[in-house]
Design brief:
132 residues; mainly beta; six-stranded antiparallel barrel; 1 helix; 8 strands; globular
């Protein structure tokens, strides 16, 4: 039986996907015979599509401070890399560092640089841009 927290997490995850979700294609990659060569698609892990919430790299932002000077600013804030958050139920196999992810909306191809499970329902994947 699910706890109230688990039920709420499932409902929240579904809401995130319905509001912010877009399709992504995941391709498992592995090292070929030559370790110095580019990674190749892993035939044991077939490509699959999943709905995820994408967070793009933002431009630099200087938020206004709460001081009395009209143009007073606080510390500069910058997002360092793009992210995608996927519901664990939508993952057909364990996505690991080095796998590829394609954002279907734009055709951008990313490499998974760091998967970070939230411990409840979703995994956040830090992405590194790849050339098409």
């Amino acid at each position: 039986m699910s706890t109230p927290f688990e039920l709420a997490a499932a409902q929240t995850s579904a809401a995130v996907d319905s509001v912010f979700g877009e399709p992504f294609t995941f391709v498992g990659m592995k090292t070929g015979d030559d370790v110095d060569a580019a990674r190749i698609a892993d035939p044991d892990r077939p490509a699959f599509d999943a709905i995820g919430a994408y967070v793009a790299v933002t431009s630099a932002l200087y938020p206004h401070a709460r001081g009395s000077i009209a143009d007073d600013h606080v510390q500069k804030t910058v997002a360092s890399q793009p992210l995608v958050s996927i519901d664990n139920a939508n993952l057909q196999w364990a996505v690991v560092t080095g796998d590829r992810c394609t954002r279907q909306k734009t055709g951008e191809v990313f490499e998974i640089s760091r998967p970070m499970p939230d411990g409840v329902k979703r995994t956040i994947f830090h992405l590194t841009a790849r050339k098409r």
